[in-house]
Design a protein that fits this description.
20 helices, single chain, three-stranded antiparallel sheet, 3 strands, about 425 residues, mainly alpha, about 5% strand
């Protein structure tokens, strides 16, 4: 009885193997004829017996499955992912068993699939379908995790699509992987334009130099993206109101790129948001020391100094910003505001005076002092209007000053203000 049982069992397995072999044969034939529905049905017949199939049949099954799924994938992320997984499974099985019948074809088809995926992602990105681009690029990364650059671009598209949770997930993954994005660049100088240009390979660069159109071949490393990734992680946390996590991310980022002005600015902004203006000012001073010719940095430093109550220092920064950028309207407005801030003490004293001859004399002195303040502020307000002619507050302030000074330009400012406010 025991012997008969073994024979029956053997015969059962043989029958299953034969049935599966037929199903795979039918699927392959249907694929060649372009009948995807028939191929799909044949694979379904083979699927139930897959666990007990040998490795050769499994490799063939997944190779055929990949072709069926990819043929009808279109823009379906799930089908593309399924096809990629099937091809990778084929490669994995034959690598483990030493087979080679289907792996080469699977690798080629996987590469074509990934290429189409990235091309479609670029189309999505160009049409501002950032969600679609991000999904496709992330899948491109998942199908071959060596290509971490796809994960980096997937995160960037998630940011553009304002999907900050997804972007954070991708950036955190990049950070955990230690991704830097540093690549070797092959460059040479164009003899005609004198511009330094990159090449896609050393061979192409060398051939261009050999042709005589380029000179000075060099090899350089691109900048690391670690600081940028850490900064984006911090900015997302800031956007989400998670200040503690944001500050920690910024600290990590500064360790990677201690002199990165964008990171320093982000950290300064974080302190500003928390109300720590002294720390904000300290970092901004470091930034300006690193980039003393940047008017925007000087302007921001002026704002922080003003908030700290150091108006003299603020005025100094604004004027330095104007030296670098003479038409800097915001700096001119803020300078005028600081100058006019001195008016209050003068007016308050004027309002306390009586009717004695001594008081009248003091009133006249104070009026001259007030008029001098107005006259000092006028050039900055007028300068601001040259680059920002529709600045309502600047127009209103000038109108009031001109009326106080009995200047005929007051009426012109009044008419301009009416026009800006719709005639009201």
């Amino acid at each position: 009885m025991k012997t008969k049982f073994i024979v029956v069992l053997f015969l059962t397995f043989s029958a299953i193997g034969f049935s599966q072999k037929q199903a795979l044969k039918e699927a392959s034939k249907a694929l060649k004829s372009g009948d995807m529905a028939a191929a799909s049905e044949a694979l379904k017949s083979a699927e139930g017996q897959l666990e007990i199939a040998d490795d050769k049949m499994k490799a063939q099954y997944y190779f055929l499955q990949g072709q069926v799924l990819s043929s009808s994938a279109d823009s379906s992320i799930d089908k593309i992912e399924g096809a990629a997984a099937a091809y990778n499974k084929t490669i994995e099985i034959e690598k483990a068993t030493g087979g080679s019948k289907y792996a080469a074809g699977a690798s080629q088809k996987l590469q074509l699939l990934r290429q189409a995926l990235v091309e479609n992602a670029i189309k999505d990105q160009n049409s501002e379908n950032y969600k679609g681009a991000s999904e496709k690029l992330y899948l491109g990364y998942k199908t071959n995790k060596i290509d971490t650059v796809y994960l980096y671009y997937a995160a960037g598209n998630a940011i553009n699509g304002k999907d900050y949770d997804t972007a954070l997930k991708y950036y955190e993954e990049l950070k955990d992987l230690g991704y830097s994005g540093v690549t070797t660049e092959y460059i040479a100088t164009n003899k005609t334009t004198s511009e330094v240009e990159p090449f896609d390979s050393k061979q192409t660069r060398d051939l261009s130099v050999k042709s005589g159109t380029y000179i000075k071949p060099e090899t350089r490393q691109s900048e690391s993206r670690k600081g940028e990734i850490a900064k984006n992680i911090a900015l997302i946390y800031m956007n989400q109101g998670k200040d503690e996590e944001a500050m920690k991310a910024l600290e990590d980022a500064r360790k990677e790129s201690p002199e990165d002005s964008a990171l320093m600015q982000a950290q300064a902004d974080m302190f500003y948001k928390q109300g720590n203006i002294a720390k904000y000012k300290e970092i901004m001073e470091q930034i300006v020391a690193n980039d003393p010719e940047n008017p925007d940095l000087l302007y921001n430093l002026g704002v922080s100094a003003s908030r700290l109550g150091d108006n003299d220092q603020a005025l100094s920064y604004y004027k330095k910003a104007l030296e670098l950028k003479p038409d800097y309207a915001s700096a001119q407005i803020n300078i005028a505001a600081l100058i006019l801030g001195n008016e209050k003490a003068v007016v308050d004293e004027m309002n306390t005076l009586g009717t004695s001859s001594k008081d009248y004399k003091r009133y006249d002195e104070l009026k001259l002092k007030r008029d001098a303040i107005y006259k000092e502020a006028i050039p900055y307000l007028e300068g601001a209007l040259k680059s920002d002619p529709d600045n309502v507050e600047a127009v209103r302030t000038l109108m009031n000053i001109f009326y106080q000074l009995d200047d005929p330009k007051a009426d012109a400012m009044k008419n301009k203000l009416k026009a800006l406010e719709g005639g009201n």
